[in-house]
């Protein structure tokens, strides 16, 4: 029963993957997603948090600390989950998947880029809800970019968004 349910979810996940991954062929969208994906990368998220911590005034400085802590602890969990649940990346297991040159070789679940961006943006959204008008679209585009670029299943992205948001909410509630 559980395996049948899991199989249906996997097929649905693959269908969603194909729906977004086919955008890879559209040059303008490919360029956009190839650039915005870096907003969820380690370099950008760490530098962003450090910049806010070092140069912003209170209370924004505290939001940067919350983001940094959420980023740190969420990524410890991401690394653990990737070891426990070594899911193959979709471009390795789905024929006809589009992927860029030199794709990632580590495990797919959950999306580290999506976890990172949501762990960083969520404290700002909690403290200043109007920022959600800008920050949520950025977060969603980073998540979508991971699927469009052939690196993650939609469920990897969903799990990353939930993990990043959860750790950010915990960081905000602690501080």
TrEMBL record:
Keywords noted in UniProt: Cell membrane, Hydrolase, Membrane, Transmembrane, Transmembrane helix
Localization per record: Cell membrane
Gene Ontology molecular-function annotations: hydrolase activity
Residue ranges of domain Phosphatidic acid phosphatase type 2/haloperoxidase in the record: 67-172
Record-annotated membrane-spanning stretches: 36-56, 62-81, 115-137, 157-174
Superkingdom of this protein's organism: Bacteria
GO CC list: plasma membrane
Matches recorded under InterPro entries: PAP2/HPO, PAP2/HPO_sf
Pfam family, one: PAP2
Topology in membrane: Multi-pass membrane protein
SUPFAM superfamilies referenced in this protein's UniProt entry, alphabetically: Acid phosphatase/Vanadium-dependent haloperoxidase (SSF48317)
Family annotation (PANTHER family): DECAPRENYLPHOSPHORYL-5-PHOSPHORIBOSE PHOSPHATASE RV3807C-RELATED, SPHINGOSINE-1-PHOSPHATE PHOSPHOHYDROLASE
Protein name in the entry: Phosphatidylglycerophosphatase B
Organism: Robertmurraya siralis
């Amino acid at each position: 029963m559980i395996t049948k349910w899991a199989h249906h979810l996997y097929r649905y996940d693959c269908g969603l993957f194909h729906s977004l991954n086919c955008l890879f062929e559209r040059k303008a969208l490919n360029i956009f997603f190839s650039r915005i994906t870096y907003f969820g990368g380690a370099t950008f998220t760490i530098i962003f948090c450090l910049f806010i911590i070092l140069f912003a005034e209170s209370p924004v400085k505290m939001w940067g600390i919350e983001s940094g802590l959420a980023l740190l602890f969420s990524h410890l969990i991401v690394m653990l989950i990737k070891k426990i649940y070594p899911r193959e990346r979709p471009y390795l297991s789905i024929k006809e998947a589009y992927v860029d040159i030199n794709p990632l070789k580590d495990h797919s679940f959950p999306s580290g880029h999506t976890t990172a961006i949501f762990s960083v943006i969520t404290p700002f959204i909690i403290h200043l809800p109007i920022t959600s008008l800008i920050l949520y679209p950025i977060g969603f585009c980073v998540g979508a970019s991971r699927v469009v670029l052939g690196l993650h299943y939609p469920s990897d992205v969903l799990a990353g968004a939930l993990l990043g948001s959860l750790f950010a909410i915990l960081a905000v509630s602690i501080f």
